[in-house]
Amino acid sequence: MSNSSATAVPSAATLFSPCPTNPTAAACVVYVNQTTKVITTQGLQFAAPGMGITIVNSLPSSASIIDLSSNGITTIPTSALPLSVTDLNLSGNPIKTLSGTFASFSTLTAFRVANAQITDVRDLVVPDALKLLDLSGNPITTFQISSATRDSLNDLITKSHSFKVDPFTLAACDGRRDTLANGLSICLVEPSKSTSMGTIWLEIVGAAAGLVVLTLLYFCCVRKMLSHVYNQRRAGGRHAAAAADEGTGVGSAYEEALDVDPTGGVTFVNTVVGKGQEAVRGSKVQINYVGKLASTGKQFDANASTIRPFKFQVGAGDVVPGMDVGVEGMLEGGTRVVQIPSKMGYGAHGAGDDIPPHADLVFEIRLLKVVPGIRFAT
Q1: Total number of domains constituting the chain
Q2: Domain range for residue 121?
Q3: How far apart are CA 113 and CA 91, in angstroms?
């Protein structure tokens, strides 16, 4: 299979810093059709509005004022944000949920997510330094926070009138209804604070037993595992999934996808084109990789920092179908960013706590070595 077999109509763009295709550029956007647009930075300001960005892989570590408005970003890219950020603008992106803690961004004073698509605000924790939170223009129906966050928002409302949000009506409340200083009803849900010693000991014993089992499995099957996490995910392989789910999981989805599209919707960008042996179906390959969720950029697995490369046979079902398709056509020494739709990854089941159901994935792959094997029919 040639490189062109896994390409598709551009549907995503990834923001990188530094730029993988232009070492002199501080940042760039790499589109699925292989085109690249360099972004110039101005001091502490980093601006990339309206560039079609869907994945934020990384940002300049020195950036303080960041404008990523009017792109296709669906989730707050917390894992890519520099801790030095003071002003973050994500307005106009199709973000549906605002959740999680931003307390680690201790210098963040302005946070704008206006005119997005936020319906769900849940478990939000804001930094003490925050002076402006703009959620205006969002169709919010759920606003579920702790009393500590309520107090922080009330400070914004009463001291500086810098909490901007349109009037909304709660659809439901899993906790206790309360009211902000601006009169809006919210739902208070406090984090659990008590855990019995018996529960703690059970968790410790259970974790120790699980560690022993994982260790035995690792040393038994190390040649066929991505990592200790991959042991839980190997069911994503073509043959394993078909057996585990009796034809109803990833395996059958893989076959159905290939009936319509030989790539199953997998797309890629070559960031470095290699010069060695080509990986084809049947080749035994050695790679380094980093796996991330496409929606958030959160890393869920990697072997890039380990001594041993990951080895598998292309097309043999050792890995999820999208990885097989994504590696095909690579040349030794090359690197590639591969976007894998859910149906070619872990499908409706997901994988453990790190990969939710129906999650699209992004893998950054470096092909280290190709050993010719039995060439499978295409």
Answers
A1: 2
A2: 13-188
A3: 4
The single residue listed with the structure tokens 């993988």 is 20
Q: Is 51 exposed, middle or buried (0-12, 13-18, 19+ CB in 10 A)?
A: middle
Contacts of 219 (CB under 8 A, 6+ apart): none
Distance CA 87, CA 105 (A): 10
Encoded tokens for 243:
């057996």
The CATH number of residue 134's host domain is 3.80.10
Query: CA-CA distance, 275 to 332, in Å (whole number)?
Result: 6
Report the amino acid identity of residue 114.
A
CATH at 279: 3.10.50.40
Distance CA(204)–CA(190), nearest Å, equals 25
Helix, strand, or coil (residue 42): strand
Q: Is 128 helix (H, G, I), strand (E, B) or coil?
A: coil
Shared-domain flag, residues 29 and 172: yes
User: Are 162 and 37 within one domain?
Assistant: yes
Task: Round to whole Å and give the CA distance between 178 and 188.
Answer: 7
- pLDDT tens digits for range 254-299: 444 444 445 678 888 888 888 899 999 999 999 988 888 988 888 8
Q: How confident is the model over 115-134, as pLDDT tens digits?
A: 999 999 998 988 888 999 99
| Number of H-type helices and E-type strands within the chain | 6, 21
Residue 376 forms part of a structural domain: no
- 20 and 146 inside one domain: yes
197 inside domain: no
Q: Which of 268, 225, 224 is nearest to 364 (CA)?
A: 268
